[in-house]
Specification:
There is one protein chain. By secondary structure, the protein is mostly helical. Helices cover 86% and strands 0% of the residues. The chain contains ten helices and no strands. Helix 1 packs antiparallel against helix 3, helix 5 runs antiparallel to helix 6 and helix 7 packs antiparallel against helix 10. The longest helix is centred in the first third of the chain and has 27 residues. The radius of gyration is 17 Å and the shape is globular.
Length: 208
């Protein structure tokens, strides 16, 4: 059952990473659906925004794809050196994605609600990876794994955001995009954190 869950996470993560590569790498940043949507809404974006978006996409893809493999016990136990090296790359991906995400949040479609939601996501993302690293340095493996799982639930917002976006678009159509995108800025990550926190608490209670 655990392998199925991790496999599903990996497939969804790789799928969204592939989608991002096609959208922004093959089609091009200027013609990507997300960017075109902002342009059609009349949003004025500085040149730096495009560069920051590019860095955000690349670094976040590394974190998104590597996360499930970092959480797989088979890889972690059999090759600790590989786990450690991939951890450095994952950490760099979160740091790059978080810092650029904090900048991009200021330009989020949907006003203050969306801006605050994405800014909080970026900050929580960076804080939890710091806590995961600190636990690893202190050799507290249990806490390290718990913080890593919470951190990846935030990384996985890249997947849940697109799932929610698809659902809201089907329900309300593209005309209401500015309204529901503000809510998606929160529900793409808050339920993820609540779910994994409850899961870890339940697991801990069973262990005792």
């Amino acid at each position: 059952m655990k392998r199925i869950r991790m496999g599903t996470l990996a497939i969804l993560a790789i799928g969204i990473a592939g989608y991002a590569i096609v959208q922004y790498g093959v089609i091009g940043l200027e013609k990507a659906g997300f960017v075109m949507q902002k342009i059609n809404l009349g949003e004025v974006l500085p040149n730096l925004w495009g560069w920051m978006l590019g860095v955000h996409i690349v670094t976040s893809i590394f974190a998104l794809v590597l996360g499930p493999f970092q959480l797989m016990e088979s890889i972690r136990q059999k090759n600790r050196l590989l786990h450690k090296r991939l951890g450095y790359i994952y950490m760099a991906g979160v740091a790059g994605g978080g810092l650029t995400g904090l900048y991009l949040a200021y330009y989020a479609t949907g006003g203050v609600v969306a801006q605050t939601g994405f800014a909080m996501l970026a900050m929580c993302w960076m804080i939890t990876i710091f806590l995961a690293i600190r636990a690893a340095v202190q050799r507290n493996i249990v806490q390290h794994r718990q913080w890593t799982m919470i951190n990846y639930s935030l990384t996985f917002a890249a997947v849940t955001l697109r799932i929610w976006l698809g659902i809201f678009t089907l329900l309300f159509g593209p005309a209401q995009y500015e309204i529901y995108y503000a809510y998606i800025a929160w529900i793409c990550w808050v339920p993820n954190v609540i779910f994994i926190t409850l899961y870890l608490r339940r697991k801990t209670s069973f262990a005792h």
